[in-house]
Amino acid sequence: MSKKTQSRAYKKARDARRLSVQSAKGNVWSKAHPGYDAERMRKKRALFGQEPDLLDDVFEPMTIEADAVLVAGDWHIPFYDKDFAAFLLDTAEETGIKDLVVPGDFWDCDNYSRFTHLSWGETFRQEIDEVKIALNALLGTFDDIYFCRGNHEKRWIDGNFGMMGMKELFAITGPWADCVHTTLDDRITLLSGDREWLLCHPRSFRQTNLSVAKDLCAKYRMDIFCAHGHQWAQGTDRSGHFQLVDGGGMFDPHKLEYLRNTSTYPAVQGGFYAIIDGKYVPYKNESPAHEIGGNR
Length: 296
Hints:
By secondary structure, the chain is an alpha/beta fold. The protein contains eight helices and twelve strands. It has two domains: about 45 residues; about 230 residues, Purple Acid Phosphatase, chain A, domain 2 (4-Layer Sandwich).
């Protein structure tokens, strides 16, 4: 037997003796204090679940109960369609709807993109100013506005190493009291009428309309509003019970850099929805120049 092998065998035997001694001491102490271990575990079990859920504190899952809301995602400010935004405000006034849900990408955060820039001449400071103008206009009509995170807001969050989130992003534009609500999640749950909606900004994107919405519906078993893809479609799942919509968006496709590239991605289409007593009402951007080919 080599010296190295002998040394390993000695250490193994020494550790075994030490463990045996410690175990014996523990047994002696336990016998002298009957019921201590059981009481300690009982106290731990009593405390389990009473401490705050740290993940929920960070992400703040959002559920809204409302008979009627407008849902408009993918603004990509400052690259949004201002005429269509004015139509959104007119629709809110006509319908009397006072709540707006924005399922992600209200901001564009192009300066924080990890992709190559073609330099559109704006700074993040100017984007902040544009967001402030848009928020002021919206809050002149809506009592409450709800925002979840999109992949473009995530640009800013990632650029700040995750140390700041949606609250801090919107705080840059000024104090909005309690009428602006944000969540770091990429989804908001809406309870309207007898329906449950998942208003989301999923990571997934496919060329086939409603493809992502159908898979999400199969997973979550609720009505689905899909932002992110910039596509426009309505339908149901295979059972015919759940409503599915591709959300369109408030963007101006002629201003978005990546929509000007030549590609085989499907044409994008702007639009927003009202959800009233659980049923959707579509509002398509009817501008003749709006629909162009492009990716997201």
